[in-house]
C-alpha cells in the first residue's frame, strides 16, 4: 500500500502561487502513475501572511513543518535594506537546516557558453554572516559578526564528502578566504581538511573564493563538488546557475538532521506575477529532489525524464528561455510527456 506523504506547502508570493500550482499539478499526475500519494498542508509566509495573521511566519506553519518534516516552498519576497527578516534564512535557522544542497546541471536544448555542466554545491546554511548578528555601533557605523564554528564546518564538510562517496563524485573543492580571514575561514578550512582525510579515495583541493569566481568563468569543468561557507555559497550558487541558463532552472534543498525544505532559489518576480509567464522549472526540480528524499524514486525519475523531454523538444518552453508558452502550458506539456491523461 502506497504511503501518503504529508507535505507542508508554502506557495510564496509574486509568481510563487503560479509556479507552485504548476509543480503540484505535475506531482499529482506523476502520483497517479506511480501509486504515490500526497497530502498538502498549505500556508502563507511573508507579507501575505502578515496581512492575514499578524505574523510573517505563522505559528501554524512552524508546527506543520515540525510535524511533517518536509516542506516545498515557492519564492517569498525579502525586503532590501529594511523590513522583515528573510523568511528563507529564518526557517533554515529555526529547523537547523545546515546543508544547502544545489545541483547545477545542464538541461537539453538550452544553448549556453558551457554545455554539459554538472556541478554540486554544498553550502553551510546556518552561520557565517547570515547568522543575523548585526548592530549599529553609532548612526554612521554598522557591524555584522561572522560566525564560523567547528560543528557547522565539520558537518557540512561531511555532507559533501558523503554525497561524493555515495554518488561516485571524484573531487571536492573547499572554497574559502582564509588568506585574509585567517581565524574564521581558517577554522572552516581546517575542518574541511580533517574530514577530507577520512575519504582518501576522493581528491581534495582548496581555492580562494575570488579566484574560484574567475575559474568558474574560464573553466567550470575543473569542478565537481563545491564545499563552502554560507555567504560564498550564496554567491557561487548564482554564478553557477548562470552557466546553465539562470536561476529559473536550478533547484535547491535545505537539509537538516530530521527536516528538509525544498525551494526555488530565484526571486518572486512581482513584475510578471499573475500573467502566466513564469517558468516553474526551478521549483519543479526542487520537488524532484524532494521525491528522492521521500524515496519516491520512480516518481522522481518519471518527472525528471518528462521535464528533459519537454526541454529537448523545445516546443513548450516559457519566455525566459526563448519560448512562447505560458506557465500552465509548460506544466501540461510535462504531464503529457509522462504519458498521463
TrEMBL record:
- Which biological processes are named by the entry's GO terms? isocitrate metabolic process; tricarboxylic acid cycle
**Sorted alphabetically, which keywords does the UniProt record give?**
Oxidoreductase
Q: What is this protein called?
A: Isocitrate dehydrogenase [NAD]
Enumerate the InterPro entries for this protein: IsoCit/isopropylmalate_DH_CS, IsoPropMal-DH-like_dom
Q: Which Gene3D superfamilies match?
A: Isopropylmalate Dehydrogenase
Q: Does the keyword Oxidoreductase apply?
A: yes
Q: Give every Isopropylmalate dehydrogenase-like domain span.
A: 6-334
Read off the SUPFAM superfamilies from this record.
Isocitrate/Isopropylmalate dehydrogenase-like
The family line of this record is:
Belongs to the isocitrate and isopropylmalate dehydrogenases family.
Q: Name one GO molecular function term.
A: isocitrate dehydrogenase (NAD+) activity
UniProt key word RNA-binding:
no
| Pfam families in the cross-refs | Iso_dh
